[in-house]
Design the sequence.
């Protein structure tokens, strides 16, 4: 398995070198986040670019993010916005939010990205939709609640992306008592039963190990 992980990481680095290149603002955000002691759980560069491309493909003007951390993914998302676009990103930890605001400002995106501090389930009810794209990357046990709010705040044709939905394959363990796994399994059941979305999930391997993304298209308002 260690050899596979090394190969996965090497492929990610190859993709980053060939297709993405290095970016001063993103490198700074990653370095500043590590220096501040934030956990190293931000999306990988190729995953950040995927979010950026999804936002651009659907012409997103308003984006919601649940889970800011140090602002790495927020920079990718905010860069996809057109003039006058808006990213609202929610972060529970005040220290993480402070680091994220500084990183977003250093990237020159403070005019289009707002970091709101507090528990997302407290701040989500204060937001006004619709949003074109929602990215959920926070505590996994609350994924069903975050998804419900993201759907409520989305428009028809909008997209909801949820990170970390495979968890090294543990998502298939029907006997699991891990709250994170249970949150993801409830999310999948919710998406399957929800007639307003069409959804899928895919596994990913790379520098972040074996995990995956769920993607839901909002196909109806009611």
Sequence:
């Amino acid at each position: 398995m260690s050899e596979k992980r090394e190969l996965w990481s090497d492929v990610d680095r190859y993709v980053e070198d060939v297709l993405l290149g290095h970016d001063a603002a993103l490198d700074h955000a990653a370095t500043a986040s590590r220096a501040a002691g934030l956990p190293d759980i931000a999306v990988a560069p190729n995953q950040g670019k995927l979010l950026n491309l999804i936002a651009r493909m659907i012409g997103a003007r308003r984006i919601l993010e649940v889970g800011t951390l140090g602002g790495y993914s927020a920079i990718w998302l905010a860069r996809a916005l057109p003039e006058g676009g808006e990213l609202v990103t929610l972060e529970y930890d005040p220290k993480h939010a402070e680091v994220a605001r500084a990183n977003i400002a250093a990237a020159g995106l403070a005019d289009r990205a707002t970091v709101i501090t507090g528990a997302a389930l407290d701040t989500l009810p204060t937001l006004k939709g619709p949003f074109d794209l929602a990215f959920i990357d926070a505590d996994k046990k609350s994924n069903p609640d975050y998804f419900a709010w993201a759907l409520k705040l989305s428009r028809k044709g909008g997209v909801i992306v949820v990170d970390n939905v495979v968890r090294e394959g543990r998502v298939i363990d029907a006997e699991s008592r891990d709250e994170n796994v249970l949150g993801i399994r409830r999310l999948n059941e919710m998406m399957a039963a929800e007639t307003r979305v069409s959804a899928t999930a895919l596994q990913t391997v790379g520098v972040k190990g074996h995990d995956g993304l769920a993607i839901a298209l909002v196909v109806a308002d009611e």
